[in-house]
Each structure stands twice: as C-alpha cells, then as structure tokens.
Amino acid sequence: MVSLVAACGEKPKLSNFTQNKLPDLTIGSHRFYLNSCHSLTGVFNHDGTIKTKVILTFPIRPLSVCTDKQSQLNFDGTYLTVKICRTAFGAGGCGVEKYRTKDFENWQEYIGITWHENEQYEAWRQLGSNSSKADDITKVVPAL
What is the pLDDT of residues 97-117, one digit of tens each? Predict the structure, then answer.
C-alpha cells in the first residue's frame, strides 16, 4: 500500500512525460497529452518555439482512479473537450467528467442536461464555480 500512495502522489516531469508517449490528440502544430486523473498537458509550437504547459489540472476526487482506455480528447473545430472516466474505489462503473475550452486557458465543466423550448441542451459552467446555474448551453444534436 505504501508504494501505491507514493506512486499516486508523484507528478511526472513534463519533458519525460511528453517524450515517451504519443499525443492523445493533435490540432495543427499543437499536441495534447492526458495524464490520467491528474492533468492535461499541451505542447505548443509557435513559429518553431516549443512550449510545454499543463493547461488543465483536474479536480481532486479522493479514493478514485481514472481509466485511460475510456478517457478521451476531442476537438470539434470550436471546443477542445476532455472526458475522463473516474471510478471510486469499491464502486463499480465509470463516472464521466467532461471539461471544455475554446482557448486552452478558460475551462468549463459539464453540469448536466437542460431543456429549452422542448430541445435538449448540455449545460456548462466555469470550472471552479459553485453556482448551480449554467454559464453556457450547447444544443444536443442526435447522432445519426
């Protein structure tokens, strides 16, 4: 048990982390790497200058673990969306958490579904906000 606690508390060095792994997502010259339940790292290439930066640190959920196989990054042309699958120790199933950004700095977290004029929307609020109100909503388009 001691080794598990020590392993969970260590944070990988960014250079080693990004050098030894294929990116989880590439958008143009930018590469993104998921670090399990801990963070999302971006490697940005601006005219040949490479900058590596943790762009999102996920909220801490004690006694839980993420399943990398079910976690994912997506880019729809507007939003970079991160989905992580987190399972509490002793519990079954996966609790999906979703976060999104347009600019890699200002993040929103998914808070549920809402309805407006009989249409379904995803509700989003600024990450870290305690408000129960959505800051933004996005219409749900059924998959074909």
Answer: 999 999 999 999 999 999 989
Tell me the pairing of strands 80-88 and 72-75. antiparallel
Amino acid at site 68: D
Closest residue by Cα to residue 11 from 54, 55, 67:
54
Q: Exposed e or buried b for every residue in 116-125, given b needs 16+ CB within 10 A?
A: eeeeebbbbb
* Cα 22–chain centre separation: 17
| Local structure of residue 131 (DSSP, 8 states) | -
Cβ atoms 57, 63 nearer than 8 A: no
Q: Are strands 39-46 and 30-35 parallel, antiparallel or unpaired?
A: antiparallel
For 111, counting Cβ atoms within 10 Å of its Cβ (0-12 exposed, 13-18 middle, 19+ buried), the class is middle
The overall pTM is greater than 0.85: no
Containing 5, the helix (H) or strand (E) segment is helix 2-9
